[in-house]
Amino acid sequence: MIESMGLGGGASSYYYIPEASGKSSWCGCRMQQVSLNNHNNNNNLNLSLANSQQAFTAALDLMPGGVNSPVRAFKSVGGQPIFIHSAKGSRMWDIDANQYIDYVGSWGPAIIGHSHPKVLAALAETMQKGTSFGAPCLLENTLAQMVIAAVPSIEMVRFVNSGTEACMGALRLARAFTGKPKIIKFEGCYHGHADSLLVKAGSGVATLGLPDSPGVPKAATSDTLTAPYNHISAVENLFHHHKGDIAAVILEPVVGNSGFILPKPDFLAAIRKITEENDSLLIFDEVMTGFRLAYGGAQEYFGIVPDLTTLGKIIGGGLPVGAYGGRRNIMEMVAPAGAVYQAGTLSGSPLAMAAGIETMKIIREPGSYEYLDKITGELVNGIVEAGKRAGHPMCGGHINGMFGFFFTEGPVNNFADAKKSDAHKFARFYWGMLEEGVYFAPSQFEAGFTSLAHTPDDIQFTIAAAHKVLSNI
Ligand SMILES: *Cc1c(COP(=O)(O)O)cnc(C)c1O
């Protein structure tokens, strides 16, 4: 049933602690006890981050902003990012040997916990046979069968290397299938960094305060229409004004890229109906929600079946993967079955397939999502209650292993509502929690994630830390 790999798990509670403390050592997991100080940068924390700071200084000279993906740079909470040495179960250790309970989970993939022994064993075994062939291998069939069996809308699937690629491919296919040029996306939804989708794209862009990216030609986004999330009549208006021109509506069925935002009860059904009536396709971007909200994703959870679905994150079990899939008659337009070109040197990588297969075998065990629901509900309710008790306007929510909270009264139904959250307060909360040994996403506009490895004790520890921090900010 539930594999628990958190604290107190007997032999499995012995994890490697990095060299930063002076010498390598194996030791039992104990939360680092650090006292709270109110800071919104890490220059004078009680947490020692000297090695991370040194590494980041070096990185700034080597990579733009010192990172390979913008939100990692901690810009929206101030200070500098923490360099991770290793991760196991619900925990991560930085290169200064501080330990954290991790609620980022590599931004979603780590739903069974980090470094699960079965995933590591599958990777080790697969690796012995070679890391990449550029030719078909059996693991691709296995993962494809699992994805098709799990996700209601998917009859055929194409594996790619990232969620960005999956969304690019799905859009090209939707335009080819319908013969129409335009797409509708929602403000605050992120579908990767392809040119045509980099319009009002949520967290990464919002965090940096860039309304759009320089370098994206106007022509690339001129067929991208946007509407506020949860706003059905705005979508109806777009269909009215661009009659016969809309190839697809793409959306996050639960938003995670401008904080955690739920669809209103009728929203997804209404979009399904409008797209059907107009011979347009509905694309669920389930890169985040796939296998996260339910084994069959948001479409299973809400009972709404899209035409195309994009996946990523969890299906790679922590290795780089994306996928898009849908009805057979649509997917058979993809090359070489059809004329819509899309390719990838490393697509279907045996290592990524192996990690995805093991991850999915574990998460599909009975009881997994019930467990995630229980601990995540306790977590969010505990944090919001702690905030309210300390006099902070707060709201929050969760579905199974995905959650979020805002420093505003709410309700938060779209990106404009999310932006009312007090980002300065979030930053103080963020650093306070980090000092307590809790690692959240370093931005108010990101969802959080739990895993099967998070124990009830992890949750209680986090809530206690939140009480302490929230009453001091
Ligand atoms: C993460 C994410 C993407 C992009 O995936 P990458 O693998 O980072 O390219 C696309 N859509 C959604 C909803 C995501 O959460």
Automatic annotation (TrEMBL):
The UniProt keywords, alphabetically, are: Isomerase, Porphyrin biosynthesis, Pyridoxal phosphate
Cofactor(s), names only, from the UniProt record: pyridoxal 5'-phosphate
Name a Pfam family for this protein: Aminotran_3
The protein's matches in InterPro entries, at most eight in alphabetical order, are given as: 4pyrrol_synth_GluAld_NH2Trfase, Aminotrans_3, Aminotrans_3_PPA_site, PyrdxlP-dep_Trfase, PyrdxlP-dep_Trfase_major, PyrdxlP-dep_Trfase_small
From what superkingdom does this record's organism come? Eukaryota
Entry-linked CDD domains:
OAT_like
Query: Which pathway does it take part in?
Result: Porphyrin-containing compound metabolism; protoporphyrin-IX biosynthesis; 5-aminolevulinate from L-glutamyl-tRNA(Glu): step 2/2; Porphyrin-containing compound metabolism; chlorophyll biosynthesis
Q: What is this protein called?
A: glutamate-1-semialdehyde 2,1-aminomutase
Q: Which source organism does the UniProt entry give? A: Stylosanthes scabra
